[in-house]
Amino acid sequence: MFETNNLRIRAVRNTDFEKIHDLWNDLRVQKSLSPSYVVPLGNKFEETLRASAADALLYCIIETEDKCDWVGFVNLFNADRKNRDAMLALALCPEFWGRGYATEVLRFVVDYAFRELALHRITLNVFGNNAAAIKVYKRVGFAEEGIQRKANWSGGKWQDVVLMAILDEEWAALREDHGE
User: Fold this and answer.
1) Residues in domain N-acetyltransferase (predicted)?
2) Contact assessment for residue 31 and residue 155, using Cβ atoms and an 8 Å cutoff
3) Higher pLDDT pick, 39 / 105
4) I need a surface site. Which of 16, 78, 141, 169 has the fewest CB within 10 A?
5) Nearest-5° Cα angle at 77, 73 to 27
C-alpha cells in the first residue's frame, strides 16, 4: 500500500470489483473512459474487469487517507516491455472530482512508474471534450502528441481523441525544477 498527502493507493481486492463495476456504470464516468457505446454494463462485464486487473502492470484502488472512502482506480496496462511504455487509465467517483485527487494520484503513479517500474514513457488517450482531465494531465507534465480528429461519437456528435504522453527524462526534469 502507498500513501500520498491525502490518499491511500492499494492493491485491488475481490470486494472492489462491484464498486469498479458501479463506477463504470455511472454515465458521467463511462462516457469519459471508453469509446464504446455508453450502455449499462451487466454482470458479465465484471469478468472483463477482473481480467483487465490481472493483466495490468499496475492496478490500484484509490481511497482517502483519513476516512478510507473509496475514490476510484488507476492502472497501467498494455505494457510494451521492449519499449518500456504503458497506457494509463484513471477514474474517480464524481463526488471526488475537483478536489485535486487526480493530480495527486497521477504524480505518485508517474513517479513510481519511472523510478520503480523502469518505464520510459507513459501514454494515455483522453477525449477532447474533457477539458478538466486534459488540464490535469498537462499540470502533471503530459504533452499532447497528436489528435485523432472526430474519432469518437458521443452525445450525438463527433469528438476528438487527444493522445498524450510523458517521458522519464521529462519527469526527471520536472522533479529537478521542483527541487525533488
Assistant:
1) 7-169
2) yes
3) 105
4) 169
5) 45
